[in-house]
Amino acid sequence: VIPAARGEDEEGLSMAEGNTLISVDYEIFGKVQGVFFRKHTQAEGKKLGLVGWVQNTDRGTVQGQLQGPISKVRHMQEWLETSGSPKSHIDKANFNNEKVISKLDYSDFQIVK
């Protein structure tokens, strides 16, 4: 295994790139309601130091927004696509409206009812 060069994380982003703040919207399809998906999403987001929100939709999906350092957001996107809550079954994850932001719009990771 070749160690990452100093100043790079495991994704190969430089520290400066990895700390760039981004915002991205998401919608998760599959068996994602009634399986504590929102609670686990909030917990994972907080664990990674991200802010944003998560809510159920009337289409049977879960949607929300993530904001934080790009390297942490990428980690959360991977989690949303592949892990989710233990009883969930994720069919598809859509990510839209990704953009660089100069400051966070939220102070916490909220479950929206």
Structural features, described:
The chain contains three helices and five strands. It is of the alpha+beta class and 113 residues long. Strands 4-1-3-2-5 form a five-stranded mixed sheet, with helices on one face. The longest helix has 13 residues, at 70-82. The chain starts with 14 loop residues before the first helix and ends with a strand. Mean pLDDT is 90; it is low at 2-11.
Can you tag this structure with a few keywords?
single chain; 113 residues; alpha+beta; 5-stranded mixed sheet; 3 helices; 25% helix; globular
What percent strand? 35-45%
Question: Could you give the order of strands across the largest sheet?
Answer: 4-1-3-2-5
- Structural category is alpha+beta
Order of helices and strands: HEHEEHEE
H/I helix tally: 3
Tell me, briefly, the overall form: globular
